[in-house]
Design a protein that fits this description.
Blueprint (H helix, E strand, L loop, with lengths): L11 E3 H9 L1 H9 L9 E2 L1 H22 L4 H4 L6 H11 L9 E12 L2 E13 L3 E8 L7 H5 L2 H13 L14 E7 L2 E9 L2 H21 L28 E2 L3 H7 L13
Helix pairs in contact: 1-2, 1-7, 3-5, 7-8
Length: 274
């Protein structure tokens, strides 16, 4: 018998929930099972990190609205801080090599996996029918992560996987081949150094099997949700005091803090009011 209630059959998995579980099963359970809103500070200095997180969300709103057709000159006045102004200028200075591609901002895709739905919400997907599919994700980290570190994150794996699984309607009704798909992280503070991750059949098969196994483990065979043994992660977790893993927040200049704080989904990003 499970020590905790089973995950509901209606639960939808995402890159965020899979990453939470991989980082710390207890964090996954507290966030998605118990649905706790725990008010611990994620990192210090608090005000500076809250400001940068808000700016990151605002930048995503600006780009979304621009990609949906609002003119850049009308949006420019909302880039009202030094960071936003710099990011916005960098964004407008890059054509991203997608002239002639069909472009889908705020795209959501989902597919069934092991009895549950798997969902991805894309900043931008650019499709050249029958040829190429590019996934863009805007990042506002103040340090550029190592490519090998980003390659293994669930966002990279799930986003490419789902575009192959559920993106046929974007490609003239023909399923995309893994080799046609590429994930690109565009870093607003490092616009000339995007991280690019092409895809292969072997990676697709590996990712599909890995997601299936993880979903089955979480939803049917997991008997409990223990805390991670990697206690350094706890300094940047909002649940650390609940787990008695410390009261002081980690320092915000640590990249892991940013990766936890600034990986947000589209439901957190509202439209700009004019």
């Amino acid at each position: 018998m499970r020590e905790l209630p089973a995950i509901s059959a209606s639960f939808t998995f995402s890159q965020s929930s899979l990453q939470d579980y991989s980082d710390c099963p207890r964090r996954f359970w507290l966030r998605y099972g118990e649905r706790l809103q725990w008010p611990a500070v994620e990192s210090e200095p608090t005000l500076e990190n809250e400001r940068r997180q808000q700016e990151g969300q605002h930048f995503h709103r600006l780009v979304q609205q621009h990609r949906l057709g609002l003119p850049a000159e009308k949006l420019a006045r909302f880039a009202s801080t030094a960071n936003l102004s710099r990011w916005w200028e960098n964004y407008l200075g890059d054509d991203f090599g997608i002239t002639g591609y069909a472009q889908y901002a705020e795209l959501s895709l989902s597919a069934p996996v092991a009895g549950h739905r798997l969902l991805a919400k894309y900043d931008l997907a650019a499709i050249q029918t029958g040829e190429k599919a590019l996934i863009f994700d805007w990042k506002t980290y103040h340090k550029r992560p190592r490519d090998e570190w980003m390659a293994v994150r669930w966002q990279t794996r799930v986003y490419r996987l789902l575009l192959v699984m559920a993106g046929a309607h974007l490609n003239g009704g023909i399923p995309l081949a893994p080799e046609q798909v590429e994930m690109i992280y565009w870093y607003a503070d490092f616009p000339t150094r995007p991280a690019r991750f092409p895809y292969t059949v072997a990676q697709y098969q590996r990712d599909l099997e890995a997601v299936k196994q993880l979903v089955i483990e979480i939803s049917t065979t997991r008997m409990d949700f223990p805390m991670t043994d990697e206690t350094t992660r706890c300094a940047y977790c909002t649940y650390r005091s609940y787990c008695e893993r410390g009261a002081a927040a980690g320092q915000g200049d640590n990249l892991e803090a940013e990766l936890q704080e600034y990986d947000f989904d589209f439901e957190q990003v509202q439209e700009i009011a004019f």
